[in-house]
Specification:
459 residues, EC 1.3.98.3, Arc Repressor Mutant, subunit A, oxidoreductase, rSAM, 38% helix, alpha/beta, 4Fe-4S
């Protein structure tokens, strides 16, 4: 499989508009409060009847300090005692949800995100993992993909050894940028020594995959300063990079109001940084997975993409399309059967649900036949840069050219611009179109027109 990218500045400028990241289709904006506890239980029952493995996501919302760029659902506090009542409730939810899923279903994937999961003490993390093992069928032989997000400022050699002993075998390190001026501007002071010590400790303890998170478009960044950060990290050769575009949306995220907008790099500088990142990472042997993600050619994400097994869910790219995703904790989102489900976003509502023994469902959406069809189309494009019409026709018993006549007509301009090639058998995304894969997927999104202003720009 050709996993190369081509940086065409003119195309990127013309196609740089707002759009979804497609961690789901329909996107989370379609979830509504008419979907609650009863609807979720019905979909769990249907999911159990179908069988198959599970993926668990546990949300730990706490952070010691606030990073001004952050758009995550988090609770900033230096008081570690605040985690205790939340942990009690999370364990209650694990027991409640675990009792509803067929115990024979193996948990092939597990992910702790946040916030900062390592905000918890070792004793708290052990309790959380023990509770999960008690109520869900986790692997005991290290064959599951069990991952955790860590803040190197909250982590040391001892913590890494403890996480490995708990069963984690994949790790993602938050960094964003090493430049001291950028770090000060976004209130995240983090040294190279802290970061690389954690990376090296993870390798020593046998973590099978290491990922570094970076963000481009932060205040005071330039192509030269970000290149220096990237070169320092490349010397340690992590297995994966996640290089995200900073979306400045202060009207939605209050902490972003503390960023000095005058210090944000111009769109032209952001494009220079992006081009540099793509060039340096591909020169270093990494392949472009899609949507900000790069990986070594022997990484399981790169292999899954070549083998046609890559998937995309609320945590990003995944190697397991066969797993139902169970969201646990405040604000978490899951996908069970043909429904998406989100928990309450506020701690008091979550606490009240747990106190009364209710599933903490805030809202959800049940997909109809058209949603499921369009999700399959978008997933093929965003994961594999390829769309085989015959495969979709056989799976959904449609005539692709008839069902998607309007969409195929709208793709012609992208074909003429060199983003895709297209014939009667399918669509192939060309190297020049891979950085703009969101735009191509957007052609098949029936909900987009009324919601577009609520998404970040694609580049």
């Amino acid at each position: 499989m050709d996993q190369s990218i081509k940086f065409d500045l003119d195309l990127i400028k013309r196609y740089d508009k707002s759009g979804p990241r497609y961690t789901s289709y329909p996107t989370a904006l379609e979830l509504h409060e008419g979907f609650g506890d009863a609807e979720y239980r019905r979909h769990i029952a249907q999911s159990n009847a179908a069988g198959g493995p599970l993926s668990l996501y546990l949300h730990i919302p706490f952070c010691d300090t606030v990073c001004f760029y952050c758009a995550c659902n988090k609770i900033v506090t230096k008081n570690r005692a605040h985690a205790a009542p939340y942990l009690d409730n999370l364990c209650k939810e694990i027991a409640l949800q675990g009792g509803l899923f067929d115990r024979r279903r193996k948990v092939n994937q597990l992910h702790w995100g946040g916030g900062t999961p390592t905000f918890l003490s070792y004793e708290q993390m052990k309790r959380l993992m023990d509770t999960t093992r008690e109520h869900f069928n986790l692997h005991d032989d290290d064959s599951g993909e069990y991952s955790i997000e860590v803040d190197p400022r909250e982590t040391n050699d001892k913590t890494i050894a403890q996480l490995r002993a708990l069963g984690f075998n994949r790790i993602s390190l938050g960094l964003q940028d090493f430049d001291p001026d950028v770090q000060k501007a976004v209130n995240r002071m983090q040294s190279k020594e802290q970061t690389f010590a954690v990376l090296e400790a993870a390798r020593k303890e046998g973590f099978r995959s290491t990922n570094i998170d970076l963000i481009y478009g932060l205040p005071l960044q330039t192509e030269q300063t970000f290149a220096k950060t990237l070169e320092q990290i490349l010397a340690y050769a992590p297995d994966r990079f996640s290089v995200f575009n900073y979306a400045h949306m202060p009207s939605r995220f209050k902490t972003q109001r503390r960023i000095n907008e005058a210090e944000l790099p111009s769109p032209a500088v952001k494009l220079q940084i992006l081009q540099m990142v793509g060039q340096k990472l591909t020169d270093a042997g990494y392949v472009y997975i899609g949507m900000d993600h790069f990986a070594k050619p022997d990484d399981e994400l790169a292999a899954a993409q070549r083998e046609g097994k890559l998937y995309r869910n609320f945590q990003g790219y995944s190697t397991h399309s066969d797993c139902d995703l169970v969201g646990l904790g405040v604000t978490s989102i899951g996908r069970v059967g043909n429904a998406y489900i989100q928990n309450y976003k506020e701690l008091d509502q979550y606490d009240q649900a747990m106190a009364t023994g209710r599933l903490p469902v805030f809202k959800g959406v049940e997909l109809d036949a058209d949603d499921i069809l369009r999700r399959a189309v978008i997933t093929q494009l965003i994961c594999h840069f390829d769309l085989n019409f015959g495969k979709i026709e056989r799976q959904f018993d449609i005539a692709f050219a008839d069902y998607f006549a309007t969409e195929l007509n709208n793709l012609k301009s992208m074909r003429d611009d060199g983003l895709i090639s297209m014939d009667e058998t399918g669509v192939t995304v060309q190297p020049a179109g891979r950085l703009l894969i969101r735009n191509i997927c957007m052609v098949f999104d029936k909900y987009l027109a009324q919601k577009q202003q609520q998404f970040s720009r694609v580049i």
